[in-house]
Design goal:
Elements (H helix, E strand, L loop, with lengths): L1 E6 L4 E6 L2 E7 L8 H19 L6 E8 L5 H11 L7 E6 L9 E8 L20
Helix pairs in contact: 1-2
């Protein structure tokens, strides 16, 4: 069974299937904020959607981050690193992209496990420096 949430004419904000939560790209409500503010807004939206699905950020499996300006990568990462759960950092891809509204600085799409699905941290090791995207 597929569950869809906040269904619109073009997309659903979230879908759940087989114990996996799929979030569409989340953007900031206040596009006048700087990259730190927009990142915090996007992460809060992700938190709210995951809570609605019975999940949380420690269960994120993969995140795709779209930045309009890679020079803001470091500032975005400061907010991201304060938000993620140590030992439960997801796989991630970060790319520069033109977003639908030129005022948006960041968009994040995520995939997570639903609570009750088994998640383990095995073989944790130091990150490879060139793979910190």
């Amino acid at each position: 069974m597929i569950q869809r949430f906040e269904i619109g004419p073009r997309l659903s904000e979230m879908a759940i299937h087989n114990g996996t939560v799929y979030l569409s790209g989340q953007i900031a409500d206040d596009a006048s904020a700087d990259i730190g503010g927009q990142t915090r807004q996007v992460l809060a939206a992700i938190d709210a959607l995951l809570a609605q699905a019975g999940s949380d950020k420690s269960r994120i499996l993969h995140a795709q981050i779209f930045l309009t300006d890679l020079s803001e990568f470091g500032a975005m990462n400061e907010v991201w690193e304060a938000w993620v759960v140590p030992g439960h950092t997801p796989t991630r891809a970060t790319v520069q992209a033109a977003l639908a509204d030129p005022r948006w600085k960041i968009e994040i799409a995520a995939t997570a496990a639903v609570a009750g699905s088994r998640v383990a941290v095995a073989g944790a090791s130091a990150p490879t420096p060139w793979r910190q995207g």
